[in-house]
Amino acid sequence: MVSKETVRAQALAAAAESGGPASARVDVWLWAVRQCKTRSAATAACKAGHVRVNGEPVKPAQHVVVGDEVRYRVDGFDRILLVTQILLKRVGAPVARRAYADFSAPRPSPLDAPAAIIRDRGAGRPTKKERRALDALRAGVPDVDIEHILDVD
């Protein structure tokens, strides 16, 4: 896998050769590279604190340049994007994909998530002992008697 420093150096060299814009507003850039459906959604994400540039929370008018790292929180997961090209207008997906390098961790599969523990309707609240056993089960402690927890009297 290519490191961030290598991609950053290549992007800076390519930006120096091209005659494109030097910077863009972060909300415009997120919209242009198709991370947000609308520019107002990108602005709202910045105002809500879901966007960080080089580790710092930013306002929508903050400018990004080639080589900046943009962290965009969407659906509870961070997208880590390295700016490789400045775009001011929304473009097609293949062109937009070339404007950033994605270093995000892969999202976990829904099959990897633990199953929800369902109690029978009308069973009431769990006792303190049952709650501790359920917490241990969720934490992955191996000595939990699952049959006893879910056993209905």
From TrEMBL:
One of its GO terms (molecular function) is RNA binding. Keywords: RNA-binding. Residues 24-89 form the RNA-binding S4 domain. The keyword Transmembrane does not apply. PROSITE patterns: S4. Transmembrane segments: none annotated. InterPro entries: S4_RNA-bd, S4_RNA-bd_sf. It comes from the Bacteria. The keyword Endoplasmic reticulum does not apply. This is S4 domain protein. It comes from Actinomyces urogenitalis DSM 15434.
